[in-house]
Amino acid sequence: MSEPTLASVYGASAAQDALTVTLTKADYSNLTASADNTAESIFVATFLNAAAVLTPAAQTTDPDIQVTIDKTSQADLTRNGSNYIRHSYTVNLDVPNLASTVNPDSF
């Protein structure tokens, strides 16, 4: 198999050159695109898109996948007097056995 593509992880319109990565908000069906989306909303949209592709099951059939995202739990919580639901995920970064730290160039 092969490495996951930029388009499969970040959306069909994702592009890059030597200095920039460009993402298109319209590629994220769970994001209402606007001129003032928050940093967190954009992060969550890209994270959920990646989580749908970089699954432990996908890694089982494609050994070139070195990053997996797995939803692990959901729990009710109260923070500052307000009720929330916390969605927890595990992100696994598989690096070569000789690497002692995580380096983006390893993926």
TL;DR of this structure?
The chain has 107 residues and is an alpha+beta fold.
Describe this structure in words.
The protein has 107 residues and is of the alpha+beta class. It has one domain (6-106). It is built from 3 helices and 4 strands. It has helices spanning 6-10, 39-53, 56-61, and strands spanning 15-16, 21-22, 67-79, 82-93. The strands form 2 sheets. A two-stranded antiparallel ribbon has the order 1-2. The protein has a two-stranded antiparallel ribbon with strand order 3-4. The longest helix has 15 residues, at 39-53. The radius of gyration is 16 Å and the shape is globular.
List low-pLDDT spans: none
Total domain count = 1
Overall spatial form: globular
What would you call the structural class? Answer: alpha+beta
For the sheet with most strands, the description reads: 2 strands, antiparallel
The Cα radius of gyration reads 16 Å
SSE pattern: HEEHHEE
The first-to-last residue Cα distance is 15 Å
- Strand percentage lies at 25-35%
Number of helices: 3
The side-by-side strand order for the widest beta sheet comes to 1-2
Mean pLDDT: 94
Helix content: 10-25%
